[in-house]
Amino acid sequence: MEILTDLFRKMPGGDGMSDQALLITGAVVMATLMFIVMALCAIIFTWMERKVAGFIQNRYGPMRTGRWHGWAQAVADMLKILGKEDIIPAEAHKWLFMTGPILVLLGSLLAWAAIPWAPGFVAADLDLGLFYIFAVSSLVILGLLMSGWASNNKWALYGAARGAAQMISYEIPLALATIPVVMATGSLNTQDIVIAQQGGIWNWNINPVHNPFLFIAFVMYFIASIAETNRGPFDMPETESELVAGYHTEYTGMRFAFFFLSEYANLFLVSLIASMVFLGGWWAPLPFLDGIVPPAITFIIKGVVMVFLNMWIRWTLPRVRVDQLMHLCWKVMIPVSLISVVGAGFWMILFNQV
Amino acid sequence: MATEEHKVTKGWADQDHVGEVKSELLELNMGPQHPATHGVLRLLLHTDGEIVYKVTPVLGYLHRCAEKIAEGVNYKQWVVYSDRFDYLAPMCCNHAYVTAMEKVGGLEVPERAEHIRVAVAELSRIASHLIALATFGLDMGAWTPLLYCFREREEILNLLERISGGRMLYNYMVPGGVRYDIPKDNWVADVLDFITMLENKKLDDYNNLLSYNKIFVERLADVAVLSKEDAFQYGCTGPVLRGSGVQFDCRRDDPYSVYDRFDFDIPVGLGEMGTVGDCWDRYMVRVREIEQSCRIVRQALETLPDGAYQSIELKKIVKAPAGAAYSRTESSKGELGHYIISDGGQTAFRNKVRSPSFCNLQVMEKIGVGLMVSDLVALVGSLDIVLGEIDR
Fold it and tell me: Which DSSP state fits A329?
C-alpha cells in the first residue's frame, strides 16, 4: 500500500490528493489487481492441472487449442462456460441458490488482501493479517452449504453436508499449525512473518534444525490445506464417483465458473500462505539471489511449486472415506498440531530463541 | 416410509427429550445415470445420513431381447449377439455360446481352433480384468491407474484386432471353429512378448500404485464382507465367489474346450488385509487371475497344433438335431452358461442364458445393508458387474 500511495503522489496531479482519496484509489487499484491475478491463476492452473495430470498419466493433455501445448484451453473453457444457459432448478431456493457461489468466491477473494507479494506490497497491511485470512476464508463454507441446500438435490445436499463438516474440522489444524510460527515471529502481521525469515533457506521457518516442531507444523499445515481446498485424497464435497458432482451438481454457466474459480484461487491461496509462513515468503533460498530475482517472482514460484505438489498428490492417491477423513482430523492432526504448538514453545525457551 | 427398518437407528431423533420429531429415511436414486454404477444400473437406496439401510437394484435399462432374438436368427448369426453380453470380454461370451451350440449340435472342433479360442478368451479375460481394476480405482478416487490399465488394454485390443478385425465386438468364434486363422505377421510372438511384459513389469506397477496403497487398503479391508455361505446361497461365481475363499473355477472343475491340458492356479481371497471375502480380496483375486491367464495364453500358444481352424464351411448353415444341452464356461465375471433347446431346425427353439453378473449383483441386497454410501460404491466396483450381461 505504501508503495502505491507513494506512486500516486509522484503522478501528475498527485500532490493535491488528500490522504483519503489516496487510500480509496489505492484500495480500488489493489482490489482490481487482486481480482485479475485470481482470475489469471484460475486460468493458468486449470491448464497446469491438465498438463500435470497428463504427465502423470502417460498422456499429453490439451495440445491443440492455441497451438503451443494447448495453452488457450482454459480460455476456451471460460468462453464456453460464459455461453452456457443459466439454469435455476424450478424447486430450488432461488436467492440462496444465487448467493451461494458469490459467497464462495468472496471468501476466497477477500483473503487475498493480506498476502504480502513483495516488501511493502500488500493490499491490506493488517496487524492481524494471518487471523484475518483464516477468518474470511470461512465464508467459503457458508456459501458451499447454502448452494448445496438451495439446489434441492439430494446429492448436492450430501456434498454440502460433507463439505461443511470437513472444512470446519480442518480449519482447526490449519490454524493451529501456523501458531508455532506466530510464536516464533511474535506477530500475526503477514509482512512481519516474512521479514523474520530473511537470510537464506536456513532461516526459513521450515528448517528442522532450527526448530523441529515448526517442521511438524508445516507437514500438518500442508495436509490440512489439501483438505481445506477440497482436493486430492480429501475431495469429499465433490467425490465425482460417489456424489455425481457434489454441491455444484445443479449449477451451470457462470455460477459454476464461480466455484471453479474459487477452487483454484483457494488452491493458490493456501500454497501462498504455506510459502509465506513456512518457506520464507519473498526471500530467495540463497541470500545473494535476493538482489537478482524480484521478490514477487520468488514468492510466486514458491506458491506454484506448492501447487504442483498438491496436484501430484491429487493425481496419485485414492480418496479416503468420509469417516476416515474425520478420524484423521480429530484424532491425529489436531493432537499433533497441539503438540507442535507446545513443543515449539518449549524449544524456544530451551534454546533461547524467544 | 419410515417403517421397521428405521428402528435400528438410535439417532438423536429417537431420544425422548427431543419430543415428537418426524424422521424418516432418505430415498436416494443412485443411477441409472450415475458415474459409479458401471452402466445403467439403478440402485434405490434408503439412507440415514451416510449409512445405507436398504439397497434395491432396479434392472432392465439395457434390455435388448437377446434371448428372444436367438429364436429368430440362426445359430451362426447369433454369435454377434453373444458379443454384446459382456462387452468387456466378448471372446469369453463367444466361447460360452459356441461351446453350448457345439454340444447341442454335436459338432467337432479342430484342435487348433480350440487352442486359438483359449488364447483369445484368456486375452479377453485379461482385458476385462484390467478394466475392472481401472474402474475400481476410479471409484476409489484414483484416476491414474485407469489410464495405466487402459494403456495395456489397448495393446490387447490391437492384438485381437489383428486376429479378428474388430476392436470391441469381435464376432470371432463360429460353431465348429474360429472365423479366421492366426495372421501370418508374427502374431504369436507379439502376444508372447506382451504377456511377458505384463507379467514382469506392469502388474507390479498396479500393485505398487494401487493394490498395496495404504489409503486404498484402508478403504477396502473389512468392507462389505461376503461370507462363503452367502456366496453359495446367492449363486455367486467367478472372482466374487473366489474372493470369499472358495476355490471353484469351471475351467478346472468342469473343464470345457482344452483347459484340462494347461497348468494354472486358481487364486482365492485369503483375507490378507482384513476378513476373507472383503472388497480387497475380491479386487486382489482379479489381479492374480491376470497372472494365471498369462500362463494359460503362453501354454496355449506354445503348444499350438497345426491343422484346420474350422470343421465346417462358413457358408454352410448349421443345424442341430432336436434336443437340449446346457454348458457352462468361466467368463471373466463368473459362470456363463447357455441352455439351448433345439427342435431340429437352424435356429434355437430357446436359448436361456445364465449370466454371472446377474447372480453376483443380487448379493447387494444382503451385504449392502449397513454400509456407508462410499462403501456401496466400493461394493459395486468389487462385484465388477456389466449391465449388458445382466439385462441381456
Answer: I
